[in-house]
Amino acid sequence: MDIIRILLVACALSMDCFAVSLSVGLCRKETSQFEILKIGLFFGLFQTGMTLAGAFCGKFLAEFIGTFDHWIAFGLLAFIGVRMIRDAFAGGDGQTFTPKMSIKTLAALAVATSLDALAIGLSFALIGHEIPWTSAVIGIVAFLSAEIGVNSGKYIGKNFSPKIAEVIGGIVLILIGGKILAEHLKAEGF
Question: What pTM was computed for the model?
Answer without folding.
Answer: 0.78
